[in-house]
Design brief:
alpha+beta, 3 domains, six-stranded mixed beta sheet, single chain, 12 helices, eleven-stranded mixed beta sheet
Length: about 600
């Protein structure tokens, strides 16, 4: 957004300040939409000429834009902050896989907040903050869930999804399918006259770069005249695929907004849109340094638009540094709800800044030098409205140097010293203060859970068994060929008793018939891998070859092994073959344990 446009918008907001704080409907609905790996520069309203995002442009025009909105460098940490209003290490999140993505059970989420206030709550799309109870979305305040709990997903067409505890097959392109279910949820809430909190967490434009034909047709040969820092070396096919996915995402955002209009719910619905980190390639991002995984502005700055016609005037601009940690207290403030009690929030309620320009002047003063911290892989960076201290301790004036090209620490030593002290204190009091488990264990039989899913991501291969991809999320175990091979899951049995054990497998028909045993403590169950089931990998839909660590997917099917008795407490579940008549045993996607009532 140009300086002139920003100035006009601020002046307009001040001019209409007397009308900005009207009485809100009681209660408003909330629609929170999150993109995955969409960079700040991937939208037309910020100046990208290669993409058209009219739905998001309309949100920017009709509501507020948080100009310097900061998230975290990767998925799970940002999502935890959006949901809790607290820096992600406080909730126990340390990474994006292998159990490190899980939020502590005693954290109160946005869904808890609205559910307790009488809202119906729904989560649609990518969860990525825990799979088993009590980490599953249905255990975190959501009434319904359609999507997937792992992060990286391997199939974007007719994809395997979870619907309220059942494994189902989605219909069509994954973003379209997620939107269909979110629309159905909104329509049902209207019929039942219940306010809603709807969390739509898209997994696009995250790789694999699978794009519907109609979207790809517009971009396959499209000229890209705005380049990222690599210039002529930029992978333009990847850029085209990413922007095609962004346009599809915008189309689905338009469907959600149109649904609100059709149901006469737009004026009393708070709509928030943001992304979870920077772009997943070095494409155009307004000249900012860094991409996904970086703690620099390019890695953590996201667009953020908030529309609430009943209280937020069009073209409201907030130029102070804000962050994902502010979303929970702000939504609570706009909806007239008290934030969760018991644990202090790191975020602040931006409602005064959004709804009344007079009051926002005082609020902006308190935010002007507030630090927003980004961290990943042990690196810590601090952002204020005017400056960034990067992970190496260099200081940049972000107003004049958004590309972080000139270190001014020597010119502004007091500012540099203060931000370095903030970074050190945050590392000490937040990043290093949360105890880390010596071993990741996954709960089995948690109260309220209809089943426990143990995906391959949460297991460990032994012998010749390997993962189908380096990235654990959405992988499966393969190359299981010998009796000496095994697969294990470290678990903590919360409720002892009998469980039906179910393997999701594939196996060439010629290799069917292996005898496998699942053991845990003194309990065992034995079954036979049959019949053969050998569907192809989904290798036909990608516009860009998958990265080295990305797994392809295929359709696995369930096989009931039988019933196993598990004792309370920590144990290791081991899956082994005692007889292998063919060249392989099976490929394994997940183990599912269902309590026997």
């Amino acid at each position: 957004m140009s300086v002139i446009l920003r100035t006009i918008a601020v002046i307009a907001a001040l001019f209409v300040a007397g009308d900005a704080g009207g009485t809100p409907p009681t209660p408003p609905n909330v629609l929170l939409v999150v993109a995955d790996d969409a960079g700040w520069g991937d939208f037309s309203f910020v100046g990208n000429r290669s993409v058209a995002t009219p739905a998001l442009d309309s949100l920017a025009h009709d509501g507020a834009v948080l100009e310097q909105f900061c998230v975290q460098p990767v998925c799970s940490p940002t999502r935890a902050e959006l949901l809790t209003g607290r820096y992600y290490p406080r909730s126990g999140v340390r990474g994006v896989s292998l159990g490190q993505e899980r939020m502590a059970p005693d954290e109160r989420t946005l869904a808890n907040l609205f559910h307790d206030a009488g809202f119906v709550t729904g989560c649609f799309g990518k969860w990525h903050n825990g799979t088993q109870w009590p980490y599953h979305p249905l255990a975190r305040g959501f009434d319904t869930f359609h999507g997937f709990t792992e992060g990286h997903w391997g199939d974007y067409f007719d994809a395997e999804m979870e619907h309220d505890g059942a494994f189902v097959q989605g219909r069509g392109y994954i973003a379209d399918d997620v939107t269909n279910h979110a629309i159905g949820f909104i329509e049902a809430s209207r019929r039942n006259a219940k306010p809603f909190f709807c969390y739509v967490a898209f997994n696009t434009p995250h790789s694999p770069m699978s794009v519907p034909d109609t979207a790809w047709a517009r971009f396959r040969d499209k000229a890209i005249d705005q380049r990222g820092p690599e210039g002529d070396r930029e992978d333009l096919t990847f850029t085209r695929a990413a922007l095609a996915m962004v346009e599809n995402l915008d189309t689905n955002l338009s469907r959600l907004l149109t649904t609100l209009e059709r149901l006469d719910m737009a004026s009393d619905t708070i709509v928030v849109f943001c992304s979870d980190n920077g772009p997943n390639s070095t494409r155009w991002c307004g000249g900012m340094r860094g991409k996904k995984g970086s703690t620099d502005d390019g890695g953590v700055r996201s667009v953020c638009c908030i529309r609430y016609p009943a209280r937020i005037k069009p073209r409201t601009i907030v130029d102070d540094a804000t962050g994902a940690i502010d979303i929970l207290p702000t939504l609570a403030g706009l909806a007239g709800l008290a934030p969760p009690q018991g644990k202090p929030l790191d975020g602040v309620d931006l409602a005064p800044l959004l709804t009344d320009a007079h009051e926002s002047i005082a609020t902006a003063t308190t935010l002007a030098d507030r630090p927003i911290v980004a961290s990943f892989g042990g690196k810590v960076s601090v952002r204020t409205t005017t400056h960034r201290l990067d992970a190496e301790g260099r200081l940049y004036d972000m107003k004049t140097d958004p590309g972080q090209l000139r270190d001014i620490a020597a010119e502004q030593p007091e500012k540099a010293t203060r931000l370095r002290e903030i970074a050190a204190a945050w590392r000490r009091d937040v990043l290093d203060a949360v105890p880390r488990p010596t071993e990741e264990r996954f709960p089995v039989g948690y109260p309220g859970a209809a089943l426990t899913e143990l995906p391959a991501r949460d297991g460990v291969p032994h012998g010749g068994v390997v993962r189908s991809g380096k990235a654990p999320n959405c992988s499966f175990f393969t190359n299981w060929t010998k009796a000496d091979d095994s697969i294990t899951w470290a678990v903590d049995v919360v409720e002892p008793g009998r469980y039906t054990a179910e393997l999701w497998y594939t196996c060439p028909p010629a290799d069917a018939g292996s005898t496998v045993t699942l053991s845990g403590g003194s309990g065992t169950v034995t079954g036979t891998i049959a019949p053969g089931w050998d569907p192809p990998l989904n290798t036909a839909d990608d516009r860009v070859p998958r990265g080295h660590g990305e797994s392809f997917s295929k359709q696995f099917r369930p096989l009931t092994l039988g019933t196993i008795t598990l004792e309370k407490g920590p144990t290791t579940l081991m899956l082994r073959a005692t007889d292998v008549p063919g060249a392989s045993v099976a490929d394994i996607r997940r183990l599912v344990l269902r309590p026997v009532k």
